[in-house]
Amino acid sequence: MRTDKSLLSFTIYAALAALFLLLRISIVNSQMDSCSLDVSSFLPAPFNDSSSLSCRSVWHTFDLRYSKSQGNVLTIVLSAEYTSGWVGMGFSKDGMMVGSSAMVGWMGKERAHIRQYYLRGQSPSDVVVNQGQLLGTNVPEVVVLNGAKIYLAFQVKFEAPITRQPLLFAFGASRPSHFRLTEHEDKTSILFDFAAGSSSASSYPVQLKRSHGILAIFGWGVLLPVGAIFARYFRQWDPLWYYLHLAIQFLGFLIVLSSLVAGVSLYDKIHANVLAHRGLGIFVFVLLILQVVAFFLRPDKDSKVRRYWNWYHTWVGRLALFLAAVNIVIGIRVGGAGNGWKAGYGFSLAVILITVIVLEVMLWIRGSKKPADPPAFQMHPPPPAFQMHPPPQ
Ligand SMILES: *[C@@H]1O[C@H](CO)[C@@H](O)[C@H](O)[C@H]1NC(C)=O
Question: Which residues contact 8 (CB under 8 A, 6 or more apart)?
Fold first, then answer.
């Protein structure tokens, strides 16, 4: 029991260290800013009034300049790095793509275009030009290429004073033909507070989101499955399997805890509309805490209830790993993570699944070769020998 106690205090210290590290990452992150460029020299009135425009970095290279004027009119200048394809900004009711309206701009072969689209559905054919529900003003929209950046400038009129508004940002890689947009390369959904003053500039927490994803994939997708593999397939290395299982699962727990901290502070910043991902993430973390608690409360090896504890510990662990894998896939989807993430997680998942299949088959072969031995994976105490072999006459 003494080792349990020192393990517990080690866990707490390590968790605090992880938390501290994450806080540092998020502070460093909020200091980066790319709003300094003056747009008044290359944009026409009324978009040239730099002094009235607030600016915030919202996502990747996307900067949002805006000002509110009488009659609930919002003046927007969206800028983003641009080589080809299209750049868009959507106004959503609930943070989701379907049902929202968007302004999309691109450099055509002869001239630049900016158009409003209605996002009726998710497929390119459901993104219809000139049918959005945004009300314009009599100021014409403008799209300009300046240096490496494209600028979309437009005004939108709202029926009520505008404060917090779910916004979508996206870009596509290929130039629209006949005003038909290709699917986006990447997109995001944020809740933007237009009521906050210009002083509260904050950038989109790209690094925080990345940390959340990397930590979750490393903890849930790599460490915890590997620790479980030691517990199931390497019982013959007694007691090494036990210490490996313990050490890896505790490290995994810490990494998952850090990923949860990152996820929570990410949610505080962007209020992403990801109910299923959040709910499932919290649920699997509760399962993980139950596993830690169960470890400290485990009954003695020779105790009668130990077999029920073993059964519980094994199945809660499997359930947690399975649901966590589902949630990683959901997270990659809702986070709009690129192909690198999909390939990375797909690869690690494939390696783990193949390892498990191979080890399971080896276990099965070993078990069927030597039926007299208790199989190595046996979690319950083996049945007493006299049940299997009738006692000698
Ligand atoms: C914006 O452009 C208008 C018309 O070209 C000009 O009269 C005005 O002085 C400009 N404002 C600023 C702040 O540059």
Answer: 296
pLDDT in tens, 300-342: 988 999 999 999 999 999 999 999 999 999 999 888 777 788 9
Q: Burial code of 216-237, b = ≥16 C-beta within 10 A, e = fewer?
A: bbbbbbbbbbbbbbbbbbbbee
Alpha carbon distance 152, 102 (integer Å): 12
Distance 226 CA to ligand 1 centre (A): 64
Rounded to two decimals, the pTM is 0.53
| Boundaries of every domain in the chain | 38-201, 206-366
Ligand 1 site, residue 160, Cβ cutoff 6 A: no
From atom 6 of ligand 1, which residue's Cα is the shortest distance away?
A: 45
pLDDT of residue 18: 55
The finding on whether 48 has its CB within 6 A of some atom of ligand 1 is yes
Atom of ligand 1 nearest to the CA of 46: 1
Tokens, residue 361: 């088959």
Nearest CA to ligand 1 atom 4: 45
Residue segments in the chain with a per-residue pLDDT below the cut of 70: 1-34, 196-204, 370-393
pLDDT of residue 389: 46
Cα 18 versus chain centre, distance: 19
Write down the CATH number for the domain with range 206-366: 1.20.120.1770
C-alpha 41 – ligand 1 centre gap (Å): 9
State in Å: Cα 50 to ligand 1 middle: 10
Superfamily of 38-201 according to CATH: Cellobiose dehydrogenase, cytochrome domain (2.60.40.1210)
